[in-house]
Amino acid sequence: MGDPATPAPDDEAPTAVPLLAPRDGLPPVIDTSTRLVEYAEALGSGSGPVAVDAERASGYRYGQRAYLVQLRRNGSGTGLIDPVPLPDLSVVQASIVDEEWVLHAANQDLPCLAEIGLVPKRIFDTELAARLAGLPRVGLAAVVESLLGYSLVKGHSAADWSTRPLPEEWLVYAALDVEVLVDLRDALAAILEEQGKSEWARQEFDAILAAGPPAPKQDPWRRTSGVHGLRTRRQLGVLRSLWQARDDLARRRDIAPGRVLPDSAMVSAVQADPRTEAALLELPVFRGRANRKLVGTWYGAIARGRELPESDLPPQSRPGDGPPPVNRWADRDPAAATRLQQARAGLATLSQQWNVPVENLLSPDLVRRLMWSPPEPRTAETVAETLRAGGAREWQVELTGPLLTEAVAAA
């Protein structure tokens, strides 16, 4: 393991050069099978890593499907692929499956890429690499400006990418995102090598791929904004019913649920507990034309939740398998509170020493679980086994194991 090192501060960098147009010009959107096969062949004959990005329509459409896929490889040029008419990109997969794919914040794009047949064997995540390298800002535009000296206009990341035809300025933005990724990968790889963190990064990237697609969230309705303002199980049952009705409608219409009915409107309706459709229509949001037409749907959901038998109502909070909230530790188990305090202090020191965010040194949830329920006997070996079982990578076990062993043995 190398010695800690700090990247050059980016606040001394010269003024960034605006990156306004793709160096090879804006390629036409690939929207036919013939052109897709041609570009896949070009990718296969290129060299080096493949830059990959995807644009979604979060906040506009239901789900997280890709509405544009961008790729670039040395010798192959940039490809802008429309996955709406081309929902199967296995021909592209076959041409680059054995190459390293470069993505920024890979966890965001890998699920939607997998839906259209793009699954990498090796990746380099420039966002995660920037975190490990200790850069103060890790957004794509910030890292590109810091390390490459270019400024990217980030004005369309939240656009409705399901729009057809896509505006030219959006396509320019999309092409520029992959224009710089391989150069950025090389700059970050050099920093990580200098800092002795190349192996850390490799293990992190492998862990992303090994994790696979995220599991469906349990009780997703509990993520409704404002749910903590509901005090009874009956109110939660009504909210769940209303959330399910909204989700069903949003899925059928392929519209983001929040655009069908805002979270705040659902919570307000539950709190108001209207006893007629007319009373529901008196509430804000429900007075609008769209929701007047849907008043039967919304009121029906509220009525179903209101009529649920007591045994079918959701618990006030979802049972957890982890330790209690940290603010209760001092009362419930003072020794555990002391262990956690010592562990956090040691991790904070390591974070400063290696210039890596604490949450990237080790999962905070794993730290809490270990300090609440230490293994027996409390040895370096059992701590290491616990960390590995919790998903820690070997570099994390090696780096944090000694101080965590000391913490669990202290109290």
Automatic annotation (TrEMBL):
It is an enzyme of class 3 (hydrolase). InterPro entries: 3'-5'_exonuclease_dom, Exo_C, HRDC-like_sf, HRDC_dom, HRDC_dom_sf, RNase_D-like, RNaseH-like_sf, RNaseH_sf. Pfam families: DNA_pol_A_exo1, DNA_pol_A_exoN, HRDC. Keywords: Hydrolase. The keyword Hydrolase applies. Its EC number is 3.1.13.5. GO terms for molecular function: 3'-5' exonuclease activity; nucleic acid binding; nucleotide binding; ribonuclease D activity. It comes from the Bacteria. PANTHER family: RIBONUCLEASE D (PTHR47649:SF1). This is Ribonuclease D. It comes from Petropleomorpha daqingensis.
